[in-house]
Every structure is written in C-alpha cells, then in structure tokens.
C-alpha cells in the first residue's frame, strides 16, 4: 500500500523517530506485517502459569497478583506449593515476538474456580491454549482439558516439572489424562525461557495443523 507520507517528509530527521537500525525488520519492511496471535495459558492453581508468562514476556507482564490472605485459605489449596505467597487475582498478560514477525500475546487464566466466568471472554480469538499440568496434582487440569475439548480450541499439554517431584514420561501423562494421540504432550520448565518457547511453538504448529487456512 502506498504511504500517505511523502518521501520529502520521511527524509526529515525527527528526534522523536527511532533510528532505522533500531527498528525490527517487520517495522520497516512494509511487505511483512507481523502476525499477532493470542494464546491462552491454563491449568490449576499454582501450576506455573504466572511463572511461564513472566519467563518469556518481553514486556513487563501485566499481573494482578495479590498477597494470599487467610480469607483465601479455604479456596486455594496450598498443599503442593506451600511457598506460594501470591495468587493471580484476574489474569496474566505478556507478549513475545518470535522470528520478528510472529507476535504471541499470552493470556494466563486465573486458576481459581471462582473465575470460570472469564474463560469465554479469554478464549475469544485465541489460536490455542497451553494446559499446564503438575504431576503431583494431575486432576487439577481436568477442568481446562474439558473446557478446550468442548469448545474445540486446539491445545497442547505441558507438564511443568517441579524440582523434587517424580519425572514422568510424556506418554505416561497422556495415558493418565487420556489425552488423544493427536494432542502434543511435553515436559517443560516454566522458569526457563527456551523451554517455554518450545512449548509455545509446538502449540502454534499444532494449531496450524488443526485449523489449516
Ligand atoms: N521448582 C519449580 N517451581 C516452580 C516452577 N514453576 C513455578 N514454580 C513455583 O511454583 C509456584 C507457583 O507458580 P505460579 O506461576 O504462581 O502458579 P500459577 O498459580 O499457575 O500462576 C511459584 O512459587 C513458582 O516460583 C517450576 O517449573 N519448578
Ligand atoms: Mg498465577
């Protein structure tokens, strides 16, 4: 598309315009517009959703963490994560640019059951979801699995391996959760950027396979 800005105007150096070399190729190459995708990160309470978004986001993740109080004790089970002092009240939000032209917007679901009403809004426009699982509390991810199965949103299952917990084979987890063969199941570490990126790329590939354009 022709730019409405004339060449003469463009050649004026403004202190407010970033130098060309500071720009990413998709910001200068008008034939390559970045593809923005929305990804939902789901899973039970304390499974590592906030950790995952924080590990990869290039913007300061928007978090709505609140200190846990005695009032939340009866709602949020801390048996497996006694060191957890905060909880995500609404959701996590982060952004990750891959390969200069694929921008992933990550939306972490609030883990608590009382926020179920937000899910229909959260998944609108999403290409897929990562369902995080903790092998010590596998059943916590059933609600998320059921939800994505029923609404038809492509998803992958990522087992967030916690230190000190038994390391399972992806196939054992698949069997325990009765995940269909076409759904990728992987072991990852939500604290490690590379590990999270591998999981997200696997979701993007899977979503493209499931919903070819
Ligand atoms: N050892 C270990 N701890 C983790 C891992 N992922 C998250 N955590 C810790 O587990 C707790 C719960 O994680 P958080 O991201 O807040 O869970 P959320 O409720 O799903 O957002 C935090 O104290 C994290 O530091 C992991 O892969 N390994
Ligand atoms: Mg959280």
UniProtKB/TrEMBL annotation:
It comes from the Bacteria. Pfam families: ATP_bind_1. SUPFAM superfamilies: P-loop containing nucleoside triphosphate hydrolases. Keywords: GTP-binding, Hydrolase, Nucleotide-binding. CDD domains: Ras_like_GTPase. Belongs to the GPN-loop GTPase family. PANTHER family: ATP/GTP-BINDING PROTEIN-RELATED (PTHR42708), GLIDING MOTILITY PROTEIN MGLA (PTHR42708:SF1). This is GTP-binding protein. It comes from Streptomyces cellulosae.
């Amino acid at each position: 598309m022709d730019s409405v800005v004339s060449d003469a105007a463009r050649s004026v150096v403004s202190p407010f315009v970033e130098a060309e070399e500071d720009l990413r190729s998709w910001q200068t190459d008008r034939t390559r517009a970045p593809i923005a995708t929305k990804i939902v990160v789901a899973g039970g309470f304390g499974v590592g959703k906030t950790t995952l978004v924080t590990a990869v986001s290039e913007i300061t993740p928007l978090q709505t963490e609140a200190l846990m109080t005695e009032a939340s004790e009866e709602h949020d089970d801390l048996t497996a994560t006694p060191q957890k002092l905060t909880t995500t009240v609404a959701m996590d939000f982060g952004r990750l640019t891959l390969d200069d032209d694929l921008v992933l917007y990550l939306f972490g679901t609030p883990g608590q059951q009382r926020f179920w009403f937000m899910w229909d809004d959260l998944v609108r426009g999403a290409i897929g979801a990562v369902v995080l699982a903790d092998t010590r509390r596998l059943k916590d991810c059933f609600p998320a699995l059921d939800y994505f199965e029923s609404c038809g949103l492509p998803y992958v299952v990522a087992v967030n391996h916690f230190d000190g917990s038994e390391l399972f084979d992806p196939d054992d987890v698949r069997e325990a959760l009765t995940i269909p063969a076409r759904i990728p199941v992987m072991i990852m570490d939500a604290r490690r950027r590379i590990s999270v990126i591998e999981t997200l790329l696997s979701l993007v590939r899977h979503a493209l396979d499931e919903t070819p354009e």
